[in-house]
Amino acid sequence: MEDPKTLPSVEEYSNTEVQKNQVVTLEEWQEKWVNRNISFHEEQGNQLLKKHLDTFLKGENRLRVFFPLCGKAVEMKWLADRGHSVVGVEISELGIREFFTEQNLSYSEEPIMEIPGAKVFKSSSRDIALYCCSLYDLPNYADIMMSLLGKKCRYLLSVLHYDPTKHAGPPFYVTDAEIKKLFGSVYNIHCLEEVDAFQEKHRKWGIDCLIERLYLFTEK
Fold it and tell me: In its keyword annotation, does this UniProt entry include Ubl conjugation (predicted)?
């Protein structure tokens, strides 16, 4: 690993049941955007993704890349600028509009007739389509993702590792065992890197250690 920070000793936390029934409602998520409680947004983009982007893309052109719960992730424009097709899903219309505004992209919007109240926002100059609707209208996140992925797909998953007894989430703590349970029967799971992701802003979560792990899933 090339990250200059010294990683603390990383062990799985045994008390994962504390977050078992934690749910963020759609209303609570939208309130986070309205109240600017969006510390999860990375203005400079995810540095692990940037570092491992070529591993993910494998030199291929015109890939179709899906961003679930996309918010206003700047990585969407990175990929569109490289000629890839980007599709995102986000319940917060405010987050979607901010993405286009902050990236200086003009866009159109239109209703999705099949989903009451849903809209799709499309860039006028890049191949970007962001759907404003709930991904969780479907039953299980892992099942949704596996149903969307085609043959020879590659799936990047970033998870945060911290003491779940100190922070209720989101983001929620996910163990290696849970990742293997959800995805291991279908995909080869490789941890590309883990880095110390703790910043001062995370102290308000009540934690003093935060590790980010980036996984690459490939079809078995």
Answer: no
